[in-house]
Alpha-glucuronidase (Nonomuraea mesophila), 681 residues
Amino acid sequence: MPDLTGVHPAWLPPGAFRAIGARRVLVLGDGLLTGTVRAEAEQACARHGGALERDGTGSPDLVLALSAAAGQAPAAREVLTGQGGSAIGEEGYLLSRRDGVTVVLADDPAGLLYGFFHVVRLGEEAFTGERPGERHRPAARRRMLDHWDNVDVHPVMGQVERGYSGGSIYWRDGGPRGDLARVRAYARLLAATGVNAITVNNVNVHATEAHLLTDRLGDVAAIADEVRPYGIRVHLSVTFASPIRLGGLPTADPLDERVRAWWARATEHVYATIPDFGGYVVKADSEGQPGPFAYGRSHADGANTLADALAPFGGVVHWRAFVYNHRQDWRDRSTDRARAAHDHFAPLDGRFRDNAILQVKHGPMDFQTREPVSPVIAAMPSTRLAVELQVTQEYTGQQRHVCYLAPMWKEILGFGPWGTDGRTVADVATGASGDGGGLVAVSNVGDDAYWTGHPLAQANLYAFGRLAWDPRLEPDALLDEWIDLTFAPAAGGDPGPLRRTLHAMMDGSWRTYERYTAPLGVGFMVRPGHHYGPDVDGYEYTPWGTYHFADRDGVGVDRTRASGTGFTGQYPRPWSDVYESPDTCPDELLLFFHHVPYGHVLHDGTTVIQHIYDTHFAGAEEVAESRRLWERADPGDAALHARVQELLDEQQRCAEEWRDQVNAYFFRKSGVPDARGRRIP
C-alpha cells in the first residue's frame, strides 16, 4: 500500500488485514495482479506477525492460487479436483475452507485479487469452521466510475465539476499532479469493492482536456500505469469534435471517410501507448457539447464511428443518452425534458455496434432525489445499455449532508420495467451472461483527507462498487461491511455501539433528505448553478426544462397521455397505465406525473399540502436526532468525529432552511394552514 501520511485509509486501514497478516499465506501463480496479491499478503504478514510462504511444501493457513498453479499445494489441488474441472470464469473466484486451510482459487489473476479482498472483508470469519466451496463472479463485465475532473481549472466548475471533496487526484492547474501515489491508493480502494474501470476527465471536454487524446496522452498513460496493478482499465472522455480541434479537418461528420480515418489513426496511437486502454466516453449534442446532429446524422452514426475505431483493439465507446433541449420556453407546457432521451434514442434500437454502450441515467431527468426509472432502459432490447448513477451527491446534499444512497440504488436496480414478473433494471444492465453495458457512476472522490469530504460519504463509494459487482446485495449488509472494515480496527475489533449509531443515522438518510427537500418527486427546487440549498422557483422560469408549475390551485407536471406531455406512454405496461392515473400513481412520484390540487388525498389519507408540511418538519427533526446521536458516538478518531460533527451542524442548518422555505412557499401559494398548528414563517 502506498504510504500516504495524513490521508484517511477509508475501508482499507492496516488493521483490516490483521486476520490475513497473522497467518501463513501461500500465493501461487504468475501475472501482474497475482504479484499485487502477493505483495499485499507480504505486507500484511510483515505488519501482523504472519509469514508469506514461498512454495507449497509448508503448511499454510491461506492459499491463494490460480487454477493453473493449484497443483503445487495439496489444499488448492483438492479444491480444484472438487469442482470437477468446471471453469470458475472471468474475474471470478472460488472460496473454500476445509481441514484448517482457507483456499481462494481463480482462473485469472483478476479473480485472485477479488478473492483476496473477499477474505479481507471476512476477517477472522474466513478462518473459522468449515466453508463449502462458494463461487463468486461479477454480475457485469464493466463496473465503472466516471470522474468529472478538469485538467484546467474551469472558471465556473473548478478543478472537479460537481466535486465536493477538494481538488482532483489526477490533475492540478492545467497539468498532472505529479506524485500519483494517491491514484494507486485509490485504485486499491476500488479493487477492494470490485470496480474495474475509470475515466479520468470530465464528460464536458474542454480545450485542454481534448488534447489528452493526442499530444497529452502520456499523462493518461501515467495514470494507467498506477491503476493497472489493481485490475483497473483507464477510459477517456473525448469530444465528438476531435477531428476538427485536434486533426485540423474541416468536419467531424461521422460518415465522412476522412473523419473515420482520423479516429482510426488516433485510436491506434492510443493503444500503442496504453495497450489495455478501455475506450472512450462521449457526451454529444448535450448542454453545448458538439455532436452528430450538426451534420444531420444520428447518435448511432456518431457512436458507431468511434466503435469501429476501437473494435480492432477490444475497446468500447460509452455514448451518453443525456441529450435534451436546454433552451426550452418555460411557457410551453407541451415540451418535456423527461421525454428527450427516449425520443432521441428508442428509435435507434438495434443500430448500435456491439462495442457501443449506450450510457443511460437511471432517471429521465438528472439524478434527482426521487425520479421514476428512465423508460429508455426498457425501450432498447437490442442495444447494450449501461445504467448511470451518481455517487457524488449533486442533488442529495453535496457530501455536506449524510445521505446513504445504496437504498435508492437498490430500489432502482430492483425495479421491473415490465412488471413484477419481468426482468429488472439490474438484469438489463448486466445482460444475460454479464455481457450487458454494466453499471457506471459519477465518482465522489477528491484530494480531501477523507477522500469524499464527508467521512460518511465513503459508504456511498463503497456501496456502488459492491452493488456493481452484485446488485442482489442488501444496503444494510453493505453498510455493515463498510463500518466493520473502516472502524473495527480503531474500535479494537468491536464496532458494535458505533454500528448501531451509524445504522440509525444512515439507513433512512436518503428518505430523510427527501422529506426536507423536494416533495413527491417534483424535483429541482435547488439554487441554480451550484444546486445546493433551497430555491423553490430557482429554475421555474429558466430554459432548463425543470419546472414544478406550482400555482394557487395546485402543483406538479402533467405528463399523462390524456392531457399532458404523453411521457407516461414511453413506459411499457403496466407502468404506462399505473403512472397515467393519480389514483394508481405511487405517491412518491405523484407530482412528477400529475398536476394536482393541494387538497388531493394521497394513499395514506393525507392531503398533498399537509404531506408537504409534515415531511418537512419531520425531515429537519430527523437530522437533529442524527446530530444528537453522533455527539455521543466514538469512532476511535477525534478528528473524524469533529469533521462529521461540523458537517451535521451544517446539515441541520440547511434542513431547517429547506423546511422553512418550502413550507412558507406552499402556504403562501395555497393559503391552507398547517393542520397541526406549527409555525410557518
Summary: The mean pLDDT is 96. Residues 17-136 form a domain with the Chitobiase; domain 2 fold (CATH 3.30.379.10). The CA atoms of residues 587 and 602 lie 6 Å apart.
